[in-house]
Amino acid sequence: MLRYTIRRVLGLIPILIGISIFVFLFVHLIPGDPARLVAGQDATVKDVQLVRERLGLDKPIPLQYLTYMDNLLHGNLGISLKTQQPVIHLIAERFMPTFWLSFFSLAWALAAGLLIGVVSATKRNKWQDYSGMFLAVSGLSLPSFWLGLMAIQLFAVDLGLLPTGGLDSWTSYILPSFTLGTGIAAVIARFTRSALMDVLKEDYIRTGHAKGLPRSRIVWGHALKNAMIPVVTMTGMQFGFLLGGSVVVETVFSWPGLGRLLIDSISYRDYTVIQAEILLFSLEFLLINLIVDIIYGFLNPQIRYD
Amino acid sequence: MGQPLLEVSHLQTTFFDGKQALNAVDDVSFTIHEGETVGLVGESGCGKSVTSLSIMRLLSSGGKIMNGSIHFNGQNLLALSEKEMRNIRGNEIAMVFQEPMTSLNPVYKIGKQIDEAIIYHNKVTKKEARQRTIETLKNVGIPRAEEIVREYPFQLSGGMRQRVMIAMAMVCKPKLLIADEPTTALDVTIQAQILDLMRELNKKNGTAILLITHDLGVVAEMCERVIVMYCGKVVEETDVQSLFAHPHHPYTQGLLASTPKLGEHAERLGSIKGNVPSLNHLPKGCRFAPRCPKAMAICREQVPALEALDDGGLCRCFLYQAKKAR
Fold first, then answer.
1. Which of A215, A269, B74, B299 makes the best surface tag, with the fewest CB within 10 Å?
2. Contact call for B90 and A217, based on CB within 8 A
3. Which of A250, A251, A237, A234 is nearest to A281 (CA)?
4. Mean pLDDT calculated for residue range B118-147
5. Is the CB of B173 inside 8 Å of chain A's CB atoms?
């Protein structure tokens, strides 16, 4: 397992280098002159030239890349064009609310999705299955902005139990996590159901019954462990998307997260912030993929022996 | 011989496929005594496996036992609750399946898969269970049993996996072992080893074996009595010597003729013409009549009964019933 993990981590190095090059080139790939962008539309040619020299944009590109990497490794992601603050501060401020929101959404989605999926698969074509899948289809089809607004109306406005938005205390997490997690719980339920139904047809399940094992042990032990691989893949991807920040839900709940930061920076053309967010999302996906790979290794021994 | 260990009588197992009801096993009766090895023979789809799964009450969804009774040690298995049945499965009646490659859970270690059979049927600690697992693995001829328990199924060959399956079945010392085509998926040399092993376990522990196979060579090697099935019905039951010396039912004769014999050089191997009819298009009268070289008019009209023959065997064929009537 340790060797397998080390191999996976080492495999990330070339990808990391690739990403850093791509993100670095971002500024050069967008239309227009980056120096003009920083200096502003009204700046004189001379000013633009000064900015270009100050930012080192007149140097050869490989040298610029090395400078960029040096800054990156020292935690320097540049200055926001809009607020003139260090980008790293902007991102850091927004990261934790998004992370915890993603975490809570995924946690309840995983618990509910697995439960509904397992019950549906084992009670196939019975009322439990039909109601489970009805919930899942509803969860998938309800748009999250509508669900969020309805939840605010009921729990915040009518009942006055929970805050309507913002991030003041732990209660602020409840409604947004509920809204974000609903669709994911639905997807997990459907994945679990179909994967588990396939596994329950396998010969080794019959062997388990022939051994005299209780059905619960066969379903939750023998079958679920085999059925988890597609579910883990999908859950990892969902977590990646969540960490990018959900624009819709963050807007509905005025959440101080990365999604809204990204939208704000795009509309302002705050390229340094956009660049930093692309880098962050890429790293998050890499990290999640690594975790998913490691979980694969736990779930399926054959993978780690290959 | 006293009370039989297993007594299946008038078993009828039906599969429901939409509106259709197909009798995969139709009025099947037989007994197995303690320590006996009985062969259940027939072509694919004749109801051999469904019979064995009915005994274990492990029919897949859609399959249902409609009629008959299955007595094990005097207990009617069909009257037991699911929980009581679980205490029998793997403990008193164990089963070995055809496909050793897929019958073990790929994500659990060998040791754990055998341990749990012990733990669910006996009040033992994990450590005691593991000890018994290793002991049983050694008994079925697995070298380095102490290391194998920490390995996964995919690290073992097919023959080794079948040994593991047999160890798993034998670990609670069952009175009856149902082996459903245990050697079909294995190489010939490994087949002989597995058969030897089963014979040894039968002798040493007195475990009765119901051996399901389509291979008459395996039957000759292993069994004392043989039950021949065709299209869900028993067509002949006899001891193994009479089966090979003078088979009665034309179907049994056909099966024997299609087995190559050492020392004889036939131009062509015998074969039974035609195919096994599907259960939803069964012929009227004797189910074998359309393929039978000796079919008479009555065979296409009426269903023959399973009747005793002079040599003590049973046969479902008008040829012999006509003789007796004369």
1. B74
2. no
3. A237
4. 93
5. no
Q: Looking at the predicted structure, is the pLDDT value of residue B2 above 90?
A: no
Say if B129 is an interface residue toward chain A (CB within 8 Å): no
- A30 found inside a domain: no
pLDDT in tens, B274-304: 888 888 888 888 999 888 888 888 888 888 8
- Considering only the beta carbons, identify the residue of B106, B154, B168 that sits closest to A211: B168
The residue length of chain A stands at 306
Q: How many CA atoms lie within 13 A of A210 on its CB side?
A: 32
Q: Taking Cα atoms as reference points, which of B150, B160, B165, B157 lies closest to residue B104?
A: B165
Q: How far is A221 from chain B (nearest CA, A)?
A: 10
Domain ranges of chain B: 252-260+268-326
User: What is the rounded CA–CA span in Å between residue B261 and residue B255?
Assistant: 12
Q: Find the domain containing A249 and state its range.
A: 89-305
CA distance B120 to chain A (A): 7
State yes or no: pLDDT of B177 exceeds 90: yes
Find how far residue B273's CA is from the centre of its chain.
Answer: 25
Identify residue B313 by its one-letter amino acid code: G
pLDDT digits (tens, 9 = 90+) for B188-244: 888 888 899 999 989 999 999 999 998 888 898 899 999 999 999 999 999 999 888
B140 phi and psi angles, rounded to 5 deg? -95, 15
Average the pLDDT over B164-169 and give the result.
93
Is A192 contained in some domain? yes
Whether the CB of B97 is below 8 Å from some CB of chain A: the reply is: yes
pLDDT given at position B323: 61
- Spatial separation of the C-alpha atoms in residues A80 and A262, rounded to whole Å: 12
Please indicate if any CB of chain A lies within 8 Å of the CB of B263. Answer: no
Q: Which of A124, A204, A212 sits opposite B105 (nearest CB)?
A: A204
Give the Cβ contact number of residue A42 at 10 Å: 6
Residue A263 Cα distances to A250, A273, B190, B302, angstroms: 11, 11, 67, 83
Task: Mark yes or no for CB contact A302/B152 under 8 Å.
Answer: yes
Residues 184-223 of A with CB under 8 A from B: 202-204, 206-214, 217, 222
Q: Is A225 on the interface with B (CB under 8 A)?
A: yes
CB-based contact A207 B152, cutoff 8 Å: no
Burial of B91 (0-12, 13-18, 19+ CB in 10 A): buried
The Cβ of residue A256 has, within 10 Å, a number of other Cβ atoms equal to 15
Q: What is the pLDDT of residue A244?
A: 84
DSSP B224-257: SEEEEEETTEEEEEEEHHHHHHS--SHHHHHHHH
| B322: confidence class by pLDDT, cuts 50, 70, 90 | low
- Residue B86 has its nearest CB partner, among A204, A214, A222, at A214
CATH of the domain at A180: 1.10.3720.10
| Cα–Cα dist A277/A279, whole Å | 5
Alpha-carbon Rg for chain A, nearest whole angstrom, is 24
User: What residues does B39 pair with on adjacent strands?
Assistant: B211, B226
ipTM for the predicted complex comes to 0.88
Are A302 and B154 inside 8 Å of each other by CB? yes
Report residue B308 as tokens.
């005793």
- Which residues of chain A fall below pLDDT 50? none
Judged by CB atoms closer than 8 Å, whether chains meet at B95 and A210 is answered as: yes
